[in-house]
Amino acid sequence: MDVSCTNLSxxxxxxxxxxxxxxxxxxxxxxxxxxxxxxNHVNVYVLDDGDGWTVVDTGFCAKLSLEIWQxxxxxxxxxxxxxxxxxxxHHPDHVGLAGWFQRHHTVELLMSRTAWxxxxxxxxxxxxxxxxxxxxFFSSAGMSPELLEARKREIPFNFADIVAPLPLGYTRIKxxxxxxxxxxxxxxxxxxxxxxxHLTLWSRDDGLVISGDQILPSISPNIGVYATExxxxxxxxxxxxxxxxxxxxxxNQLVLCGHKLPFTGLPVRMQQLLNHHQQVLDRLLIFLEYPxxxxxxxxxxxxxxxxxxxxxxxxxxxxxxxxxxxxxxxVRRFCRTDGAWLYQRxx
Length: 347
Fold this sequence. Notes:
- The strands form three sheets. Strands 1-2-3-4-5-6-7 form a seven-stranded mixed sheet. Strands 8-9-10-11-12 form a five-stranded mixed sheet. Strands 13-14 form a two-stranded antiparallel ribbon.
- It is built from ten helices and 14 strands.
- The protein has helices at residues 63-74, 92-95, 98-105, 113-123, 132-140, 145-153, 234-246, 266-287, 298-302, 311-327, and strands at residues 22-25, 28-34, 41-48, 53-56, 82-86, 108-111, 171-172, 178-181, 184-191, 198-203, 208-212, 254-257, 331-335, 341-345.
- Helix content is 32%, strand content 20%.
- The chain has 347 residues and is of the alpha/beta class.
- The protein is globular and about 65 Å long.
C-alpha cells in the first residue's frame, strides 16, 4: 500500500547503483540488489567488524544477484572475509543467498528461530501444481472461478526457485539480545505482522536502526494471510509491534530499511503507519455495510486498480484485514453458496 511520507527526511536522494555502495555511517555500508518486480530492489547492509564483515540480508538467489555479490566480494569487500550473515526475516529477497554464503564463505548465519524454521521448511516444499488446500483457500476468499482455474494451470511459485538450500545449523537471535556489529552494540527488538519474529536492531551507541521490512518509508509492508494459517490475524500482530516499537523512536535516528531510501523522522513514520491501517479499517467497515468477500474489498483497501501482477499480494492482504475485523468482533461472516466467506459489519 502507498502511504504518505510527509515530514520524513532522506539524507541520500539517490541510491547507490547496483554493485556500488554508500557509507551511511562509520563502518556501515549500503548496497542494493535488483528484484524482478515493481519493487525493483532490496537494500543490504555490510558492517565492518575489524577482522571481517557482517552482512545484513542477501537478495534473491538469482544469477544477477550472485554476479553482483561476487563483484562486491572481489572489489570493495575484498580486504577481509565475510564472517557473519544476519537475516532480518524469512522472505526470499532477504534470505535468498543465505545458504550460498554458508556453503561458499563459511559464514555464521544469524536469524530468529521462527524465520529460520520458515525458510528451511519452505525451501523443502516444492510443488508442481497448486495444492488443494490453496484452491480451497482462494475459493473461500472469493477469487473468481475463471481466475482460480487460470492459477491452477500455472506452475506455482516455489520458495526454492529463488532461495538457496539452507544447511542445518544457525545461531538464534531473539528479542532482548544485544549483539555487536560494526563497532556498535545493538539491541534486538522483534517485530511481527509482515513476517513472524522479524528482527529489528537498534544501536545503543548512536542513532542507527536496522529495520528490515518492519518499518519502511512511503510504503506499508505487505501484511498477508495464507492457507498455512487461514484464520491468522497478522494485522493485530503488526499493530502491536508498531505500537511497541514507536516507543523507541527518536527524530535523530537514521533508519536503514529493507527497501526504498534510508530516512530520519521515525516518530512521524510510526504514527503514519498506525494511522494508515486504522484509516483502511475504517473505510472497510463502511464498505461492509453490505456483505462482501475478501476479493471484493480491493477498492476500499487500496483505492486504486490492482493489476494482475499484484493480485496475489492484494488478496492475502485483503484476507488479513477482514480476518482482523472478524476476529475482533466488528464483523460477522457467513458462507455463500459457492463456498466463499462473506463479511458484514455488525449492526
